[in-house]
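Quality-control log, excerpt.
Job 1 of 2 completed; input and output follow.
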Amino acid sequence: MPNIKIDLEAALTGPGPVVVELGCGNKAKPFSADGRIGIDLVDLPNVDVVANLEAGLAFLPNASVDIVYARSLFEHINNFDNLLTEIIRVLKSDGVCRLMVPHFSNPYHYSDPTHVRFFGLYNFYYYSQEKLQLKRKVPTFYTESRLEITSLKLRFRSPFKGRKWWKRLHEKLFNLSPWMQEFYEENLCYLFPCYGIAIEFRPDRANFKGRD
């Protein structure tokens, strides 16, 4: 059972947008200061809901959230399809999810023993209509959950100061177009490793056949 430490009903029905941060960790400010409902497995000082995200978001009603943030979360999740379907369910029709996931070419992410998966350009397109996909199409029959990707960018980072300009150059070049992104991942990603992928999507209500 989740441990809800704030008045969740009031947070969901307040005058401002409903913002949820999944896997918030040790976030700097409480809900009263930043307006974000922080959800995490670990009961840290500014976590508002302590919950196992593998079990979903049953404590959030359908179409109740304006923005979901999920940075460096999905690589820790075993039940990927369940959580993604839950995010689509709780987002409002005009809501948006903004997330960051590690790219499979990043060697640093293999060092973390809590990581269970890695990502490429196409993972989230398995949940998107074929006509909205990249040039290389992927099947959509594995799931009935549907989303529309509104932004997808490859991110290049380095912990070493002298290499940051080089990484910025890669990021600008390989994000010039979807064609360039696909060419990079097919032919160059192990020569110029990518740190991660920043994705923004919204629910595709017209084609979503998920949970009510």
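Job 2 of 2 completed; input and output follow.
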Amino acid sequence: MATKIRIIIIFLIFFSFETSKSEITKDLRDEWLINVEQYLSELSAINGSFTQINNNGNISKGKFWIGNNQELRFEYLPPSETIIIIKNKKIFFKENKAEEFASYSTNENPLVGIFSDKIQFEQFLIKNLEIKGSIGTFSLNTEKSLSRNILFLTLDYPDPKLRQWRFIDEQKKETTIFFSNIDTQEKIKENLFETRR
């Protein structure tokens, strides 16, 4: 009986220690969000690879670039060969073998808010903030779009570094993108973000 009691006490002490060690206070969470905001505002001149999983499980891969002025280019590998560019608060896309880019603008897509002017989290609703170990996740959306156009960002904690995002579009379809092989460049060629021939 005494042995069982000792085991229970040891378990409770260990559990309490682990719980307190993993607790993240509100101040630390707020501080991390400030650091994330600054990190995203300064995110420029990088390139890397991505893997995308869409709502029906199809997997696509490709390369991405973030320009000197925070423009974003996704270039999908064959067979897709789609190109997506976000700049000037617009989303440009060109399907395989298309000659010109199509475009649309929306203020309700958080991606447009991130890759445009200096990002300010106050323009978004921030929800679902969760920090586990060395990873933090939260969602961004506008007041006009509470169930659609939601962006979930996953970054390192406590020093932010983008790892993945999950986007729920206007049709409530989910797309998840994992980032890898991220490399900082002195300068990214501006012609990568040209949308006119």
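Post-run check on job 2. Residues 2-22 form the longest helix (21 residues).
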